[in-house]
Amino acid sequence: MPIFLSSFVNKIDKKGRVSVPATFRAALGPDAQGIVVFRSLHHDALDGCSIAHLELLSRSLEQQDLPADVFELIETTIFGGSVQLPFDGEGRISLPPHLASTVGIADEVAFVGRRKTFQLWNPAKLAAHDAAARTAARAKDISLSQIIAAASKFDIGGV
Question: CB of 10 within 8 A of CB of 118?
Answer without folding.
Answer: no
